[in-house]
Amino acid sequence: MQVSKAFLKILKSKFPSAVIYIVLFFLVGMMMTRTEATESAWEKTQLKLVVEDLDDTAESRALAEILGKGNKVIPPLASEDDLTDALYYTTVDYAVTIPAGFAERLAAGETDGLLETRHIHESYATANMKMLIDKFVTTYGAYMELTGSSQKSATQAVRTLSDETNVVMLQKEESTKSSSDLLLIFFRYMPYILLCVILNMLCPALIVMSKKDIRFRTDCSGIRPSSYTMQIFTSSALYVGAIWLIFVIAGSALNGVMYTGKLWLVVLNSLVFSLFSGVLALFIAEFAPSETVVNLMTQLCALGMCFLCGVFVDQALLGSGVLGVAQFLPAYWYVRVIRMVNGDIPFNAGEAALAIGIQAGFVVVLILLSVLVRRAHYSSAPRKRMA
Amino acid sequence: MFLHNFKYELKMVLRQREFIMWLMLFPIALGTLFKVAFGSIYSNNDMFKSIPVAVVNAQEGTVLNEIFRSLGEGEDAALAITYADEEWAKELLFDGKVSGIIVVDNDVSLQVAGKGIKQSILEEIVSRCNMYQEVIGQAMITGDETELRKVIAELGKEVNACRDVSPAADNPDVYVQYFYNLIAMVAICGSLTGLHVATSSQANQSELGARKNCSPTPKFKHLSAAFLGSCVAQGVSMILCVTFLKFVLQINFGGNLFLLYAAAVLSGCLGVALGFFGGSIGRLKYEIKSAILLSCSMVMCFLSGLMVGNIKGFLAERMPWVNRINPVAIISDSFYCLNMYSDYRRFFTKVLGMVIYITAFIVFGALFSRRKKYASL
């Protein structure tokens, strides 16, 4: 117990910095969760548009009405620079200016270059808007042939284009999407938070334990190396468990969701990943880097793994080659379980158990590697353990 | 004396081989991972490509079939059509091989398995088909065949109503912002070097600080030498970081290369200044100061879009002041402005923002660290 006591004392001395890490990274997690939005029944993707009507005629108003249907119309922005920024960051998908004289040109049968449009990305949103605008012009033209009146044609076009399209949402199986969506988003980002917090908190304490002075004193004592290792591992596991518990309870409390059904699987998943983070800290600490280097290594491991495995960017967007590499990292399997529970991919209990098992496998492998490195260090130490 | 201190500061930085190695390795490793992860997302997922769709019950020779055929033809076809029966179409849909099923009956309807922009475009196309049917139906009611022909001709007319006046960007790829933020993060990691500058001059923080406080060298001289030495070291690592991203990973940052390097070096100085400021406040332990700096840096990086790319736009809508005051956002914005704007007005505004921050951090850092007396240690 002596080693555990010493280790927990060191951890206690690092408690103030631990609180800073927990609070700030929890804040980051909550912000990440809040920036994501979820949806369930079929609805058209709402695009964000800036529509500026400089013509102000029945025809231009009809077009503006059609553009605004099912989309979010944002008032014109203060400057051209603001619009460029908004288009780049996709807070605005498309900007349309209806120039003066639009109605006259439309009534004259012109169909090309009637509107001024701005966009940055040749994206699906841009294609969608172009289709919608062209559809209005075509419909208007057809009604002009039928009615001969510009205003009537505009009204008829709006009426026809406002008709609802029959869209059926097919589902292979019951989706679990519910009020737990926010909680699942929080859990999706958890690997980053866990890696940052656990590595930043545990590594410095472990490095202190492997400092020459303490190590040599421990070597001279009657404590067996296996007992020393076991005590360090157990204390670390306790510490990791406490951190994990804080995040699991706080996640539930702040998102207002209780753990039920498949959500327990997500909780188990996060526990195994927490253990992985703890074991990774043990492994890194074996190389006894400085605290500053630990900070950089932590960010490298956390950001690298999270980007590659689909924590920050949806796995569906990552290429097959990237996912092929990501399979060799535990965060990939962690995210896979979350995606199954979220209904993004079909849920299969066996596959979910396998994914959690693979993460547990990573834990075992890293424990073995840590023990190996520790032994190598001990055997190459200048003063060997006395028999 | 200044040059002497400066020389030794540089030597000290260079002797921290492990730290230097990691500071260099950090952008190289993360940049490579970013390149692997985001290299093709923009062109594969964000850029418009033909949408795979299954069409059920399409009958040869009908107007609707002609519409689908025209939408599925050519290099820039809107649809990649598979004609299928209902069973097969559903199989394709659930396997994710098509984005939707268009069912042709009395009306044209759409079946989808998810929601998204591709499905919305399919809905747009289906709605267009129904509009054709309705308009043609109305024309038929009039009984005038000439009118009907005119209406059909009007509906078949090629329309291109939009005149594009978009701003010209050197590289519109939105994922490049992750690299902007990576450079900004490396710069802000310089705060750890800046923290070292502050703590190495405080007698209660380090042995070196105690020795420096006993020496007759004025505090201003050894502090400014240490600060400048750290800025030089950080500047070199920033240059290496940009060089690796630009020339090895071939990231297209757009804009003027010289200004890109200049902004990167200046951002490195901002990181050092931030660390110096943070390290000068209060008498907290080095570990706590480092934890505060690192956590705050990560929060700033998060708010600038390092983890969630669209956060900057999200904040611009709700709390635009955050983007204006966040040093990391200012750094990444300077690279963004070089890419997006052909005139350098906005770029220099961001540079001015960095200079103001550097000045403020140095001035306040110096104010906090002056006149510190150590009666007993």
Topology:
The complex is a heterodimer of chains A (387) and B (377).
Chain A: H1 2-13, H2 15-35, E1 48-53, H3 58-68, E2 72-74, H4 80-88, E3 94-98, H5 102-107, E4 112-118, H6 124-147, H7 150-161, E5 167-169, H8 181-209, H9 212-220, H10 225-255, H11 263-285, H12 291-309, H13 320-326, H14 330-342, H15 349-379
Parallel strand pairs in A: 1-2, 1-3
Antiparallel strand pairs in A: 3-4
Helix pairs in contact in A: 1-8, 1-10, 2-8, 3-7, 6-7, 8-10, 8-11, 8-12, 8-14, 10-11, 11-14, 11-15, 12-14, 14-15
Chain B: H1 2-15, H2 17-38, H3 41-46, E1 51-56, H4 63-71, E2 79-83, H5 86-94, E3 100-104, E4 108-112, H6 117-142, H7 145-156, E5 160-164, H8 176-189, H9 191-199, H10 207-214, H11 219-248, H12 257-280, H13 286-304, H14 311-318, H15 320-325, H16 327-340, H17 345-369
Helix pairs in contact in B: 1-11, 2-8, 2-11, 6-7, 8-11, 8-12, 8-13, 8-16, 9-11, 9-12, 9-13, 11-12, 12-16, 12-17, 13-16, 16-17
Protein traits:
heterodimer, A: 387 residues, alpha/beta, abc type-2 transporter like fold, 2 domains, 4-stranded mixed β-sheet, 15 helices, 5 strands, B: alpha/beta, D-Maltodextrin-Binding Protein, domain 2, 68% helix
Ranges of chain A with pLDDT <50 over ≥5 residues?
none
**H-E order of chain B:** HHHEHEHEEHHEHHHHHHHHHH
Sheet having the most strands of chain B: 4 strands, mixed
Q: What helical percentage do the residues of chain B reach?
A: 55-70%
The neighbouring-strand order within the major sheet of chain B is 2-1-3-4
Helicity range of the residues of chain A? 55-70%
Quick one: how many beta strands of chain B?
A: 5
Global outline of chain A: elongated
Please tell me the overall pLDDT of chain A.
Answer: 84
Taking all residues together, what is the mean pLDDT of chain B?
A: 85
Enumerate the strands of the largest sheet of chain A in spatial order, edge to edge or round the barrel.
Answer: 2-1-3-4
The portion of residues forming beta strands of chain B comes to 5-15%
Based on CA atoms alone, the radius of gyration of chain A comes out at 30 Å
Low-confidence residue ranges of chain B: none
Radius of gyration of chain B: 30 Å
Largest interface: A-B, 101 and 101 residues
Structural class of chain B: alpha/beta
How many individual β-strands of chain A?
A: 5
Q: Which strand-content bin applies to the residues of chain A?
A: 5-15%
Q: What letter string, H or E per element, gives the SSE order of chain A?
A: HHEHEHEHEHHEHHHHHHHH
Q: Kindly give the count of domains of chain B.
A: 2
